[in-house]
Amino acid sequence: MSQNLDPNMVMIVILILFIFMMWMSSRRMKKQQKQQQEELREAMVPGTLVVLRGGIIATIVSVDEKYEEIVVDSEGSRLRFKLNAVAGKYVRPAFIDDDEAEANDSQQEDASSEGAEGTSVASETEVSDNERTDVQNASSADGAADTAAPAEAGEADTEDKASDNEAK
Length: 168
Known about the structure:
It is a single chain. The chain has helices at 7-43, 98-167; strands at residues 49-52, 57-64, 69-74, 77-82, 86-89. It is of the alpha+beta class. The protein folds into 3 domains: 1-43; 44-93, SH3 type barrels (Roll); 95-151. Strand 3 and strand 4 form a beta hairpin. The longest helix has 70 residues, at 98-167. The radius of gyration is 44 Å and the shape is flat. Mean pLDDT is 75; it is low at 118-128 and 144-153.
């Protein structure tokens, strides 16, 4: 049984599904933004260091929930803003002076080169120890064979002499 599907209906169904997915996505994003705003408002207490939308870094002096305003102090200047002007808590980024960075880099390079040299020396030592052991094993095996060979040769000579004596 084959059904002829109207291409216009297929496009309408796809369009409706696309709109539904976009609506669900935007709804989820709005919930996340609202939750983040609530967390930020809960964190706005006097003494908190914040950054404002204009890039001003300031300390909260007071919060007025009724009018949704805050008073901030930025290096002696007191300013009044709406709560929406707060971009978030201010976290001072880690700063390393250029001289310190160069010193750290050179120390790391020294440590890595010493570690690499130590590794190669250790591996050379291991190789030379292994070679010595192999040479000693080979020598002792050869020595044992050499020792066994004269003994066998001596036994053979004794047997030859005994057979020679019997023949005489």
